[in-house]
């Protein structure tokens, strides 16, 4: 996700901003920029904002700035992790309106930026492909000499998420910041203030910070600041003293990036879905499909290509496409696909699903599918990645940079985007308006239900303490929960190094059950759905072999306690949406087990975050 740092005070802003950006590099970025209100002989000059941007690393920006001899004690800076628009200097922040008088840096997604552009900005020359620039033009449009009022009025028109900081040349002693859905922190120094996405860029200067909450706006001047709530009432907020070191600051207080990313799932799930459906029509609108309705109607086969965790998300897509769209769908592990003779024709739609967008096997398989004439689309996290560029359309999953090697938030976001695609195709023929609306309504409720599960993290840590010394595990699921079992098994394997295997529940009696013993615990997903009774029978077979059983069960299913040694309850939801919830306890179990075993959770042995070799 993007990084923001702003400064106003009595020191030169440039070094503070550049070094602050370096402290934000861990967030992942592809370009950076800075803006300073230049001073002449110690006086902040009006109408003189100098802006410098560069793609690539902070060093590239620093090289460009060196020659500028930028003197000024107020400025803002930004590292961009592209969401709308490619990785270009024009798309890098800070952005301006029609003039260079106003500059803005922003983290988040302005969902209705197209509507705002059409409604307010006719005749404005829009230079970039970003949603943020639209916001700059809007604030400039409403600017009548008071920056706070202009920001308030512009944000009243906005739908989406933002953490932003704005500066105007006509008010060279003022920064205005606003938060909705993207964190912002004010650092309170001696006669100076910092404003940033997290505390890491300010710890070298101050440990006294104020965390803005959603809907709040901060008006920061020389030696004073005011904070206003959603109702524009001035409020007082506690100043917190941070004793984190820098590494902890980058983790926002979490012990590992993996746990931070597990807990980010409710937020990034909203980003995956936001602006991509129409509840009134009961359908999804993923423009990236880049096909006419006629072409969509002609699709007779869908092939989902991916590796590892992404392939398990693909399996969820298989169930969704077949159930909702009635289209034959197969999942191919990419490294196998390219070496078999896949049957592909002009009515085949192939998705490449990849967090990094750089996985060599997935890329090679996609190229093979393209060569054979299929429609080829990407479902990718990293904007501008190779798979994103080489496919003829697709959708970014908006999970934000995933820094832990073990994929968590990207997995659930991939699954959500696949559900939306399946609905978009399903509403062409098979899916009724009511069903579509019910699915979308449930999808919108998922972030809150995810939070309910995440609240059980400490309870799941106790389970990990209980089971951490076992040497073998089974993970079982049926139907759409079989991919969940596969993902839970992979998570445990790849970060705790404990052996585990996943099977469809019905497969146990075909051999694996021979392994069961009191030393071979089994995780079974036995949530209330059409296969509940079948899964219950499988669990009873396992119980008869005296293997320890941990059940993932639906809240209220008290009978589960009779069958299992331990039960983790999850909220009820629609069967197709269950994986977005049922995976979370397994992510947490794997995480806590690995921590208790002293593993390098974020960088497990032998693994790379992106496997760019075959
Ligand atoms: C998942 O935790 C692993 N890191 C791995 O299986 C990963 O999902 C796989 O390598 C695919 O990566 P991608 O999504 O970047 O293509």
UniProtKB/TrEMBL annotation:
Record-annotated active site: 2 (nucleophile), 609 (for fru-6p isomerization activity)
Reactions catalysed: D-fructose 6-phosphate + L-glutamine = D-glucosamine 6-phosphate + L-glutamate
Location of this chain's protein in the cell: Cytoplasm
Cited Pfam families: GATase_6 (PF13522), SIS (PF01380)
Entries under InterPro entries matching the protein: GATase_2_dom, GFAT, GFAT_N, GlmS/AgaS_SIS, GlmS/FrlB_SIS, Ntn_hydrolases_N, SIS_dom, SIS_dom_sf
Chief place of localization: cytoplasm
Cellular compartments per GO CC: cytosol
Keywords per UniProt: Aminotransferase, Cytoplasm, Glutamine amidotransferase, Repeat, Transferase
Gene3D superfamilies, per the entry: Glucose-6-phosphate isomerase like protein, domain 1, Glutamine Phosphoribosylpyrophosphate, subunit 1, domain 1
Record function comment: Catalyzes the first step in hexosamine metabolism, converting fructose-6P into glucosamine-6P using glutamine as a nitrogen source.
Protein name: Glutamine--fructose-6-phosphate aminotransferase [isomerizing]
Annotated organism of origin: Candidatus Magasanikbacteria bacterium GW2011_GWC2_34_16
Record lineage: Bacteria, Candidatus Magasanikiibacteriota
Gene designation per UniProt: glmS
């Amino acid at each position: 996700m993007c990084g923001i740092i702003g400064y106003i005070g009595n020191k030169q802003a440039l070094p503070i901003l550049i070094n602050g950006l370096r402290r934000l590099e861990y967030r992942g970025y592809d370009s950076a920029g800075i803006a300073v209100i230049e001073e002449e002989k110690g006086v902040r000059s009006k109408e003189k904002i100098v802006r410098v941007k560069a793609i690539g690393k902070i060093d590239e920006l620093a090289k460009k700035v060196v020659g500028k001899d930028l003197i000024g004690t107020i400025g803002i800076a930004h590292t961009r992790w592209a969401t709308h628009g490619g990785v270009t200097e024009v798309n890098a922040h800070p952005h301006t309106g029609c003039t260079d008088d106003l500059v803005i840096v922003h983290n988040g997604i302005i969902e209705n930026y197209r509507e705002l552009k059409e409604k307010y900005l006719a005749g404005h020359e829009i230079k970039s492909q970003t949603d943020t620039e639209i916001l700059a033009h809007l604030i400039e449009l409403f600017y009548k000499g008071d920056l706070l009022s202009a920001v308030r009025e512009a944000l009243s028109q906005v739908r989406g998420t933002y953490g932003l900081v704005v500066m105007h040349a006509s008010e060279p002693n003022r920064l205005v910041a606003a938060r909705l859905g993207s964190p912002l922190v004010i650092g309170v120094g001696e006669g100076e203030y910092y404003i940033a996405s997290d505390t890491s860029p300010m710890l070298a200067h101050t440990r006294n910070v104020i965390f803005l909450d959603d809907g709040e706006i901060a008006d920061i001047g020389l030696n004073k600041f005011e904070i206003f709530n959603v109702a524009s009432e001035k409020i007082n907020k506690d100043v917190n003293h941070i004793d984190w070191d820098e590494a902890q600051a980058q983790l926002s207080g979490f012990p590992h990036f993996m746990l931070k990313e597990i807990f980010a799932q409710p937020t990034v799930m909203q980003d995956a879905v936001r602006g991509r459906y129409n509840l009134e029509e009961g359908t999804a609108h993923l423009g990236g499909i880049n096909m006419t309705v006629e072409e969509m109607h002609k699709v007779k086969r869908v092939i989902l290509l991916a590796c590892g965790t992404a392939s398990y998300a693909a399996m969820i897509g298989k169930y969704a496409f077949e159930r909702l769209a009635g289209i034959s769908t197969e999942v191919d592990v990419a490294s196998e696909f390219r070496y078999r003779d896949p049957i592909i024709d002009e009515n085949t739609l192939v998705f490449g699903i990849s967090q990094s967008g750089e996985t060599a096997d997935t890329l090679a398989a996609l190229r093979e599918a393209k060569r054979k004439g299929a429609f080829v689309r990407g479902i990718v996290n990293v904007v501008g990645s190779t798979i994103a560029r080489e496919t003829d359309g697709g959708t970014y999953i908006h999970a934000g940079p995933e820094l832990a090697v073990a994929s968590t938030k990207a997995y659930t976001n991939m699954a959500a985007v696949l559900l939306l695609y399946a609905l978009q195709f399903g509403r062409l023929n098979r899916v009724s308006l009511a069903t579509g609306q019910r699915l979308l309504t449930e999808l919108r409720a998922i972030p809150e239900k995810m939070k309910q599960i995440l609240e059980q993290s400490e309870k799941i840590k106790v389970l990990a303490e209980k089971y951490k010394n076992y040497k073998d595990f089974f993970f079982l699921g049926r139907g759409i929960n079989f991919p969940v079992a596969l993902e839970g098994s992979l998570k445990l394997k790849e970060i705790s190094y404990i052996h585990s295997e996943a099977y469809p529940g019905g497969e146990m009696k075909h051999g694996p059950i021979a392994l069961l013993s009191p030393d071979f615990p089994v995780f079974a997903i036995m949530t209330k759905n059409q296969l509940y009774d079948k899964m219950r029978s499988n669990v009873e077979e396992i119980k008869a072999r005296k293997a320890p059983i941990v059940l993932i069960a639906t809240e209220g299913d008290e009978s589960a306690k009779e069958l299992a040694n331990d039960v983790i309850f999850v909220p009820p939801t629609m069967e197709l949406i269950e994986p977005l919830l049922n995976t979370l306890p397994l992510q947490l179990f794997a995480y806590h087990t690995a921590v208790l075993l002293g593993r390098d959770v974020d960088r497990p042995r032998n693994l790379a975050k992106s496997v760019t070799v075959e």
